[in-house]
């Protein structure tokens, strides 16, 4: 089983561009006046611009900490941890199933600070794994599409649009490739569980010869360039800033259902500096840290005391029951089941090529 | 710290210790029962999860295939957010899928019997509860066997167990509190009559010897009766003492009155010859009175239970010889044949020498006074005996016991204090010897024997 999974990981990893460490590392040296600097190593799959305000604020608060932040892709991060579980003090990743699996296997340290105890039950697991962001999965459309076919607000609109104008939109729709992207696979399995009509949507996407890519950035790039008219299942936190900067794009948070993914953080059992790691994790879920996330990043804050733009509370008020946060529970283990993955991918492939003689 | 012995404490200990042991046993039972109940409740989850997984197992692409139902895992996670592990193993023991290589059912027999197994395992340092289900594909031709293994941590079970135990604990503690309270009250109530008895005894006039009459439970009533017996004996002793004092004062008053009358009579005379005669008579009387007073004193001393003289080893032969030597000349004068029959070897007895001398002198005096012509002082080795035999009138068998009472004389006409035999009896008792009065040789006369126990040597 282990070999199978490793094989899969290697396969997927091979398809992804490896993050270059030099560009993806931030280092904050300890205040030279402190006698004993306290090292802290954060390994994460979270882009630097998003996390930088948080790191700066933390370092201001604890100048004695010598902070090293390394950003990886989710798969690289996971594999690295399995190889050497004693290097990082904090693990942050948006790949919820993998994070969950590591913690389920007992790789995390229990956190019992006041903040950790008060953290809402739906955003943590066993006081070991903490969700600290709230990022809806969205669609991005070019405004010219709205002008030509009318605005789309949800999955039903998208399905109707694809079914009606599939030919015209051929090659102009983009989404994640579930076979090569971990995030795409996670969304696919969650959506297939949420609604049986998801398969109709996949078939319609196939009919429209939707382009399959591996990252949200790829999709946004194509949308900005005008290669694509509709992007489906983009990570809202990354899309928001880009859309704000490009008036020709429009962000659609689906009003029928919107998946919400959450970044998960934990302190590894064999962390070299578990105290500092615990303090950083505590800062992430503290009101101060969460306010930073809400106000200075697009990640979205969970803290129940916070309200206003960029908080889960505001999003929930806006969308109500349509929000579907991916459940932080053992269902994520099923997501990682090898047979399940094979079954889902073959079904996905079958549905995607339902209306086309040969798969793209 | 040494604890003083107390009935209250004894009762408390003997009742509390078994009670506490029982309570401990109940706790232990409650604990194991709670654990069993929790396991039973949660094992149903293992059963349901393995079943729902087993139902999804199919044959596809020439191998076992499983479309893992997430609900099965969520079921296992419970409210306590357990860690969940699962694996599907084919009949060759190869893991088809799963997130953990859990151990299998070690039992061989899978064709018949129980196809399910629940047990506690330790896996990678975690305490897990495992459920294993053996099953097979229900296809027409394919009957491939497989095993579904699931496991989860025990937190939910522990929580349920603690909850059950808390309920039981409250119940057991309440019962223990009631039992201990009742116990304390019961012991106190049971010991109350003892306090009443103590108060009744303490409140008594120290001079009274009246029996106790307060009502008491059976066990204490026995004690009360025993006390009353003792009091009755003390009453008799006191009556004896009072009579003795009465008799003694009477005995002393008579010679003193005689002395005083004699002196008065002599003072009316002018003749010195009469005076001398009176003085002689007074000397005899006062010597007799002095002897009486001495005898009374020694008797009182012998009767005093507090008086315990130091006993030293003495030879009975030497004592007998000494007594004979002392009385021989006087007996010779009054024509009495005083003889000694001593044992050949020394007879050692622990005793007080002056008391033996006193006893022998009393016996010899008595024999002489009651008209014996031949007196023999004798010692024997077996049994250890000191005896005085005479050929006087003797004492009829039915009166012998009465002769031991003070102031009791065989013949009222004869002079004497009537204390002699009583003193001998007292001496015998203080030496733990037996005093026997019996007829002498040929049924004549009197033989008084002091038989010493073997231990006195």
Automatic annotation (TrEMBL), chain A:
Superkingdom of the organism of origin: Bacteria
Phosphoprotein among keywords = no
Q: Does the keyword Signal apply?
A: yes
Signal sequence: where? 1-22
User: What is one term from the GO cellular component aspect held by the record?
Assistant: outer membrane-bounded periplasmic space
Q: Which residues form a coiled coil?
A: none
Name the SUPFAM superfamilies on file: Periplasmic binding protein-like II
* Entry keywords, A to Z: Signal
Q: What protein name applies here?
A: Iron(III) transport system substrate-binding protein
TrEMBL record, chain B:
Q: Where in the cell is it found?
A: Membrane
Instruction: From the record, give the transmembrane residue ranges.
Output: 12-31, 169-191
Any keyword Transferase?
yes
Q: Which domain of life is it from?
A: Bacteria
Instruction: Give the enzyme's EC designation.
Output: 2.7.13.3
A single GO cellular-component term from the record reads: plasma membrane
Q: Which residues form the HAMP domain?
A: 188-239
Please give the catalytic activity noted in the UniProt record.
ATP + protein L-histidine = ADP + protein N-phospho-L-histidine
Q: Where is the Histidine kinase domain?
A: 247-456
Any idea which UniProt keywords this protein has? Kinase, Membrane, Phosphoprotein, Transferase, Transmembrane, Transmembrane helix, Two-component regulatory system
A single Gene Ontology MF term assigned here is: phosphorelay sensor kinase activity
Q: Would the keyword ATP-binding turn up in this protein's UniProt record?
A: no
Q: Which PROSITE patterns match?
A: HAMP, HIS_KIN
Protein name per UniProt: histidine kinase
Q: Which organism is it from?
A: Halomonas korlensis
Ranked from the top, the taxonomy reads: Bacteria, Pseudomonadati, Pseudomonadota, Gammaproteobacteria, Oceanospirillales
